[in-house]
Design a protein that fits this description.
0% helix; 117 residues
């Protein structure tokens, strides 16, 4: 069972930045891709950013130009740099992985991001 641990959340003001980090118990280069998801109050969990084993990245439209996903295989981490945070970014953020076409059903505890206006 792969364990994922997210960290780096907190309370910031609109326009500020946060950097989230996800550490996996298994070498991340064994995964086809890793991603960051978020779940806002009263909403379903949504995918935010993905990075593949080959380093290809993709983002949901609302975070393009503000969020950057990256990975460090030496540290076994996947980070999400979030700049120019807005109220709509308030959520619990989770990381996940996929080895094939489907994302794992094993989730960490997440890290909470709160943006005050």
């Amino acid at each position: 069972q792969v364990r994922l641990m997210e960290s780096g959340g907190g309370l910031v003001q609109t326009g500020e930045s946060l950097r989230l980090s996800c550490t996996a118990s298994t070498p991340i280069d064994t995964f086809a891709a890793m991603g960051w998801f978020r779940q806002a109050p009263g909403k379903q969990r949504e995918i935010v950013a993905v990075i593949t084993r080959g380093g290809f990245t993709s983002y949901v439209d609302v975070v393009k130009g503000r969020f950057t996903i990256s990975r460090d295989t030496a540290k076994n981490t996947v980070d999400l740099q979030m700049d120019n945070l807005a109220a709509g970014d308030k959520a619990i953020y989770y990381c996940n992985y996929r080895t094939g076409a489907e994302w794992s059903d094993s989730w960490g505890q997440g890290t909470r991001v709160t943006v005050s206006t």
